[in-house]
Amino acid sequence: MPDRTPCVGGNWKMNTRGGAADALAAAVADRMGGIQEVEVVVFPPAVYLERVSGVLEGTNVEVGGQDISPEDDGAFTGQLSGGMLKDAGCNRVLVGHSERRHGLSEPDELLNAKVHAGLAAGLEVMLCIGETLEEREQGRTGEIVTGQVKADLAGVPAASLQQLTIAYEPVWAIGTGRTASPQDAQAVHELVRGTIGDLYDAGAAEAMRVLYGGSVKTENAAELFAQADIDGGLIGGASLDADAFMAIVEAAASTRVTG
Ligand code: PGA
């Protein structure tokens, strides 16, 4: 039986301001109480990483960056390196969120370099993958997500996989209120896990956490997380409300994956 610790991430995107970010982080930490069985991480806007890290110091809520440069230092205006994220108190980073992969046309080659940069910096990388509505309607979901996993993990050694989480986020479900059905999501998660098995081995596939993202809410979280290959969620809109976010965390705790 796999024993994957569920993980729930809150992607705040370009929301909050300093005081609101502090308050949201404090409210999440307060409500964590005795929850031990879920890893919880928030991804605040870059300018608030340091202050949110300060608020969360000593709690069991982790902090991650929403993006990372593939470079360590240099003439890269506006970008942040892994070392800078670590300095700001992060131990995680998102790579390939649809709002960058599709919204800013970041290609797989760049996302692969970002995965490597995050791993090299000692960050836990949450790699986001997912198909567009058009691709789904063309029946290409499997081909697209498998291709993204293979391209974005190219050259990543098996030993680094413990620093990696995958988030499957169908693009048509992000911020739309339209969620993949638990069965449809499960089918893609199983495929993603199988792809890890093909690229590495069965043990790596069993150990890999694959989160679901895309309009996860208090009302649908438990049913999604109850699926055998769904190991938690990456939450956008609902992560901006501490009560809603923590209800989702509790759903992950109570449907803890046991295979
Ligand atoms: P959503 O966003 O929960 O608002 O759909 C999910 C995400 O972008 O990670």
Please list the strands of the largest sheet in the order they lie side by side: 1-2-3-4-5-6-7-8
Taken from the alpha-carbon principal axes, the silhouette is globular
The major sheet is characterized as: 8 strands, parallel, barrel
Q: Which small compounds were modeled alongside the protein?
A: 2-phosphoglycolic acid
Low-pLDDT runs of 5+ residues are none
Order of helices and strands: EHEHEHEHHEHHEHHEHEH
- How is the quaternary structure best described? single chain
Query: How helix-rich are the residues, as a percent range?
Result: 40-55%
User: Would you tell me the structural class of the helices and strands?
Assistant: alpha/beta
The pLDDT mean sits at 96
Proportion of residues in β-strands? 15-25%
Rg, rounded, reads 17 Å
Question: Termini separation (Å)?
Answer: 6 Å
Please tally the helical runs, counting DSSP H or I stretches of 4 or more residues.
Answer: 11
Compute the number of strand runs: 8
Notable characteristics:
259 residues; alpha/beta; 8-stranded parallel beta barrel; 11 helices; binds 2-phosphoglycolic acid
